[in-house]
Amino acid sequence: MKIIKNSTPAADGFYMPAEFEPHQGCIMIFPERADSWQYGAYAARKAFVQVAEAIARSEQVTVCASAAQYDNARAMMPAHIRVVEMSSNDAWARDYAPTFVKKYGEIRGIDWGFNAWGGLRDGLYFPWDKDNAMARKLCDLFGKDIYDKRDFILEGGSIHVDGEGTCMVTETCLLSEGRNPDKTKEEIEETLREYLGVSKVIWLPCGIYQDETNEHVDNICAFIKPGEVVLAWTEDRDDPQYAMSEACLKALEQATDARGRKIRVHKLPLPKPVMMTAEECEGLDACHDEPTRMPGERLAASYVNFYIANQHIVMPGFGDPADEKAREILQKLFPEREVVQIYARDILIGGGNIHCITQQIPE
Ligand code: KQY
Known about the structure:
By secondary structure, the chain is α/β, with parallel strands linked by helices. The protein has one domain (3-362): 5-stranded Propeller (L-arginine/glycine Amidinotransferase, Chain A). It is 26% helix and 25% strand. The protein is built from eleven helices and 19 strands. The strands form six sheets. Strands 1-7-6-5 form a four-stranded mixed sheet, with helices on both faces. β16 and β17 (312-317) form a beta hairpin. The radius of gyration is 19 Å and the shape is globular. The two termini are 18 Å apart. Bound molecules: 6-aminohexanamide. 6-aminohexanamide binds at residues 36, 92, 94-95, 124, 157, 212-213, 216, 350-352, 356.
């Protein structure tokens, strides 16, 4: 594997394909840390296995597990899912597995800097060194060269692309103080252009209420095809999310994409607010002397946090009446793919959802 330091994907003719384009596989990480996953991560692991099984129906899944959890992961994952030993600080493959870029048949990775969603300013844990080392190890494992961009902090969940020159991000995340505080908005856009091979960046003002990643785009809005997105939506005007979703809708209505198209927005309902129970909080270790979560704390639940597999949409469910409505909407929008809904409260408690725990490798 070559580490490329003196060029960029755009300069070499590479770009990031959209998630709805064909994949050669998907990367996941086995959950383990006791301040992320309640009661020893047993329930979270079952949900991760269901996600891996659903994706593996149409693409090869590779699961990274620590030395301590390798045997357990191997025993829990079906035989057709590959398990490899690789250390990490937690289990968010979207955010620290490589972003992959493509030029004709060749795939390369990007090694962004990772600082646990905000470093010592407002990051979510310390240290994050093992997470930060994963992109290179994974490119080595998959035989892909990798661009070194560790001087720029970015997580995979903070970008969505349409594969036709457009990238979508949130201002709250990409302009946050804990990531690249010395960079202007224009410099950040320039980095996205150079590394993702895009010509247009659509800035949404914000994401999902209480999303501890500074509101990653992958929880609020996702491309379903060029020129079309789903947007997390509530009709409850008393919910702080209402103004946030409305502000994103306005930004999308005013935007055009890289090809000059207006964006067609499909509203995807949100579940009713999902709150931590006292029992769930008791099952979490403290993080740096502080309780990780408090009873009644609202979690950033959203159906937009789904994964587009080759022949399936793997989406979260929350045991909410809106589960079925959201599933039907996605099924209509993706008629060629079967929608698989997985009860994902145990993933949500960790702070993200199905899109956050998966990273596609384009074909
Ligand atoms: O991409 C994500 N949503 C990751 C969230 C990490 C939360 C750590 N507790």
